[in-house]
Amino acid sequence: MDSQKPLLVLGASSLIGQALDATRPDLHLVRLTRMADRGPDWIQADLSNPELADQLASSEIPRCDTALGLAPIWVVAPAIEALARSGIRRIVAFSSTSRWTKIDSPDTSERDVAARLVAAEAAFVSACQTHGVTWTLLRPTLIYLEGRDGNVSRLASLIRRLGFAPLAGGGGGRRQPVHAADLALGALAALDHGATHNRAYDLPGGETLTYRQMVTRIFEGMGRRPRILAVPGGVWSLAFLLARPFLPGATAAMGVRMEADLIFDPGPAIADFGWTARGFRPQFSTPAPPHA
Ligand SMILES: NC(=O)c1ccc[n+]([C@@H]2O[C@H](COP(=O)([O-])OP(=O)(O)OC[C@H]3O[C@@H](n4cnc5c(N)ncnc54)[C@H](OP(=O)(O)O)[C@@H]3O)[C@@H](O)[C@H]2O)c1
Fold first, then answer.
1. Atom 27 (ligand 1): residue with closest C-alpha?
2. Separation between Cα atoms, residue 162 and residue 176, nearest integer Å
3. Could you tell me which residue, 135 or 106, shows the higher pLDDT?
4. Confidence bin at 287 (pLDDT 50/70/90)
5. Best mutation site among 14, 142, 154 for ligand 1 pocket (most ligand atoms within 8 Å of CB)
6. What percent of the chain has pLDDT over 90?
7. Which protein residue has the closest C-alpha to ligand 1 atom 47?
8. Closest residue (by CA) to atom 19 of ligand 1?
9. Which of 23, 79, 128, 288 has its CA 20 to 30 A from that of 73?
10. Whole-prediction pTM value?
11. What is the 180 CA–ligand 1 centroid distance (Å)?
12. 99-107 long-range contacts, Cβ below 8 Å, gap at least 24?
């Protein structure tokens, strides 16, 4: 990626956007957010605003022909026409492997998310084709960024609060958590490789490990001895009801999935744009003890 060329970042405040800022501070990023007064390199705009094209045209931002889509794909897809009118010709956007893993979930809201992703991906591709935008879709597995994400870091804060981690059954289902910084660099690599034009890729992390091993690594990253409470599958739903107040946004289906493999092949991404991802060794700094 040419560091002089302006790159429009949709969803710049996302985990991947934050990691992009930290890993490539040399880039000329034009960051879009709905929030006011973020600073000189930020433009305040809502991708759902019907006036988006006019707003981008009338703003003082440098003209961009390339964009990264880090906002949800169902927000990015309907904005493609406006982005194309403002000069965007190339976009790398993120969807999610949840389109595969949640489609048969026992939880209605999770099935709805999967269906929404499937429909939004199709709408994104169709809008790009119609408006002459070359596209690439990247589908990460579970994203983490220490201290910031709602998956791994949420589990770390639960461990901090409870002193142990509850696990449904043996936690034998395999996972490939992926670091937000690897995704940020992967998206830039995808932008630079012609083989990715008009293609979609699953992007797993660099290590496949069971849910139980993943939890153990989180303890290790917190400098704690692992303390895991295995709850038999049959009583997980009941235990979940009791624990729910501590787990905002969690669903009982997440427990059912702890025994299921959610793994994906990085091969096509490696072949086409040299996808590389680190093993799962998250590092959490221990919060300072309260003053006496
Ligand atoms: N988190 C995961 O485990 C996970 C897993 C697989 C895939 N993904 C996908 O990967 C991408 C990044 O995920 P993330 O978790 O890093 O994202 P995130 O933290 O949830 O951030 C979402 C971003 O979307 C922006 N956004 C939402 N609606 C918008 C709108 N109407 N107009 C403009 N901006 C809007 C927000 O910007 P402002 O609030 O600043 O306006 C925010 O920066 C997303 O496409 C997500 O679906 C996430």
1. 71
2. 25
3. 135
4. low
5. 14
6. 75
7. 72
8. 14
9. 23
10. 0.93
11. 12
12. 99/139, 100/202, 100/264, 101/257, 101/262, 105/253, 105/257, 106/253, 106/256, 107/251, 107/252, 107/253
The CATH code that applies to domain 7-273 is 3.40.50.720
What is the reported pLDDT for 247? 67
Smallest CA separation from ligand 1 atom 4, residue? 143
Ligand 1 atom nearest 145 alpha carbon: 16
User: Which residues does a 6 A CB cutoff place in the pocket of ligand 1?
Assistant: 11, 13-17, 33-35, 46-48, 70-73, 75, 94, 96, 140, 142-143, 151
Which residue has a Cα nearest atom 11 of ligand 1? Answer: 70
Please state, rounded to an integer, the average pLDDT across all residues of the chain.
92
Query: 3-state SS of 17-81?
Result: HHHHHHHCCCCCEEEEECCCCCCCCEEECCCCCCCHHHHHHHCCCCCCCEEEECCCHHHHHHHHH
